[in-house]
Specification:
Elements lengths: L3 H50 L7 H9 L8 E6 L4 E4 L14 H9 L6 E4 L6 E11 L2 E11 H52 L13 H37 L3 E5 L5 E4 L1 H7 L3 H4 L4 H4 L6 H10 L3 E8 L3 E12 L5 E10 L1 H37 L5 H32 L7 E5 H9 L3 H6 L3 E3 L7 E5 H17 L6 E8 L3 E8 L21 H6 L6 H11 L3 E7 L3 E9 L1
Helix pairs in contact: 1-4, 4-5, 10-11, 11-16, 12-14, 14-16
């Protein structure tokens, strides 16, 4: 009974049954009325025919009997001849001697009164003891009624005819009913079958299958409905795709953000946390997601700030120090967030790693302090010796020359320091553009070392250079030479007399390695990590005496990074030091 086509068919069946029943009773009534009228007319016509044949002379028992014996009358009709006083003269079915006076019969009384044919009367016959229809026609002669012709017929005849018609009507109605029910069922199925297909598509849509479509063509309003469902499916698919794209974009953005993002719902559960935040708090997603923030974020020591945001809807910021195991400094930011109708949806937390920023701030402070210190020393010397020269006019010539040499050397040192600071500043600000070309690295090494041979000779150092084998490199020739000069100067400053300084070039399919190796003092292990910091010196006293500024290796590192290359250092204190620059092919 849940099938729509069954309900439609049943509704048609009920309506049809009611209609056919009403029609049956109406037809039956019309049929009976028609048969009654036809029978009444037949009785009237037959009676009037007999009335025209009877005269006053023939209205006797004998003459009437003789006359009727010569006539061929309908078998289903009964005829009675009655005189003007109501006495029965002749009857086709009964013995007249047993019949009573008929003057009081309704049809006779009406015919007598109206002097014309009576209406038909249906009543119980006293003689036959059955229901019969009667019609009486007055026999007139010279305008006077001399008797009556009464015709009658049993109602069984009418019932039989009506019954025969009724059987035919029932058969016709049954055929109509069967044909209508079959047509209704087919029509209902034709209507509901498309609806069922539409329902199947909507069920698939309900199950998030947005590729579902109605591909059949339906008539009338069903076509409009199917098109509307298809349009809805297309719209839903577009909206869901857009939402998925936005979700993926948001997920991608959150995943690639360096800032840690945490979303806490009104119940205090963590709904969203990105990879950066997980890395900062050193936790896995399954231990954090959908858990209470008071348990998951306890190590951040910011629970009081988050509760404050929940309670007062105010933004809170602070600085958080973590150790995982190295120190990490985070900028903590927490703010309430709301829905479309400004209902509170929870708290959003942002964690930004400011460790490098803090480190750079410290480096800047150290840089300022180191620059001030480095500048102060030569300036103090220049100022002191020049002041002595100005105030003492009788100094020996040799002393004056010595003081002037010191002032000159300090000015040279000061100039070199300023030049290195300016170069480092330009490199860090990416104000230097590389002029990259193809050149022979071996040839560059020999050309760069040539002016420095006097330095190595004065310090009695053995300098070994690569053989004259071609090694082509695509880079900035001038900056590579600058890298080599700084590494060789560093080796010369920290290598003992008689030691070896060696330059090597090794080439592979992917890279070219330029290394400067010395057998000098080596570098303590604790100093290796800070070796490329500005103004950092392993042996402060010695490097200052040798005129070093403490910026050479820092400049080297930045120039190497400009070439998208890498530099490594391998050293054992008291044995050797090797700097290796690797250029990618």
């Amino acid at each position: 009974m849940n099938k729509l086509w069954v309900r439609i068919t049943l509704s048609f069946f009920i309506v049809l049954i009611v209609g056919l029943c009403m029609m049956f009773f109406f037809v039956d009534n019309v049929n009976r009325t028609t048969y009654n009228a036809m029978t009444s007319k037949q009785l009237t016509e037959e009676s009037e025919l007999l009335e025209s044949m009877i005269t006053k002379d023939t209205l006797t028992i004998r003459n009437t009997k003789e006359m009727f014996s010569d006539l061929k009358l309908p078998e289903n009709l009964r005829f009675t001849i009655i005189d003007e006083d109501g006495r029965v003269i002749y009857d086709t079915d009964s013995n007249i001697w047993t019949m009573s006076n008929h003057i009081d019969r309704p049809e006779i009384k009406e015919a007598k009164r109206k002097k014309t044919t009576s209406e038909s009367y249906i009543r119980q016959s006293d003689t036959e003891d059955i229901q019969m229809m009667y019609v009486a026609v007055p026999i007139t002669e010279d305008g006077e009624v001399i008797g009556y012709v009464r015709s009658s017929t049993p109602l069984e005849t009418i019932e039989a005819a009506a019954q025969q018609k009724w059987v035919s009507i029932v058969i016709v109605f049954t055929l109509i009913l069967v044909a209508t029910i079959i047509s209704a069922a087919l029509l209902a199925y034709k209507i509901t079958n498309p609806i069922q297909k539409i329902i199947e598509v909507t069920e698939r849509l309900k199950k998030n299958d947005y590729s579902a479509r109605i591909n059949d063509t339906f008539p009338g309003e069903l076509y409009t409905l199917s098109e509307s469902v298809n349009s809805l499916a297309i719209s839903l698919n577009a909206h869901v795709t857009e939402i998925k794209d936005q979700s993926k974009q948001l997920e991608s953005i959150l995943s690639n953000l360096n800032t840690g993002v945490i979303l806490i719902n009104p119940e205090g559960k963590i709904d969203v946390i990105n990879d950066a935040a997980l890395k900062m708090i050193n936790q896995t997603r399954d231990k954090i997601l959908h858990n209470d923030y008071q348990e998951s974020l306890v190590k951040l020591n910011v629970l009081r700030d988050i509760r404050h945001v929940y309670k007062y809807d105010e933004v809170k910021t602070s600085e958080v120090h973590l150790y995982n195991p190295e120190e990490m400094i985070l900028n903590f930011y927490a703010a309430p967030y709301y829905g479309e109708r400004w209902e509170k949806r929870g708290v959003i937390v942002a964690l930004h790693d400011i460790t490098d920023i803090k480190r750079l701030e410290n480096i800047r402070r150290d840089f300022v302090a180191n620059v001030s210190h480095e500048l102060k020393t030569p300036i103090t010397s220049i100022q002191g010796f020049s002041e002595t020269l100005l105030q003492s006019g009788d100094l020996p010539r040799e002393v004056e020359r010595e003081f002037l040499e010191i002032i000159y050397n300090e000015s040279v040192r000061l100039n070199k320091l300023i030049i290195d600071i300016l170069n480092l500043s330009k490199i860090e600000k990416h104000q230097i553009r590389l002029n990259e070309t193809n050149f022979d690295l071996t040839e560059l090494v020999h050309a760069t070392v040539r002016p420095m041979k006097r330095l190595f000779k004065d310090r009695n150092l053995q300098l070994h250079l690569p053989e004259n084998e071609e090694h082509m490199l695509y880079a900035d020739k001038e900056r590579v030479a600058q890298i080599l000069v700084n590494l060789l100067s560093n080796a010369a400053n920290y290598t003992h007399e008689g030691d070896i300084v060696e330059v090597k070039i090794e080439e592979t399919n992917d890279s070219i390695e330029l290394s400067v190796h010395d057998t000098g003092a080596g570098i303590p292990e604790e100093s290796l990590s800070r070796l490329f910091e500005r103004f950092y010196r392993v042996d402060s006293a010695r490097s200052t005496a040798d005129g070093g500024t403490g910026l050479g290796l820092s400049i080297v590192k930045h120039l190497v990074e400009l070439h998208n290359a890498s530099i490594t250092v391998d050293s054992i204190e008291g044995e050797y030091t090797t700097f290796t620059v690797t250029f990618k092919r």
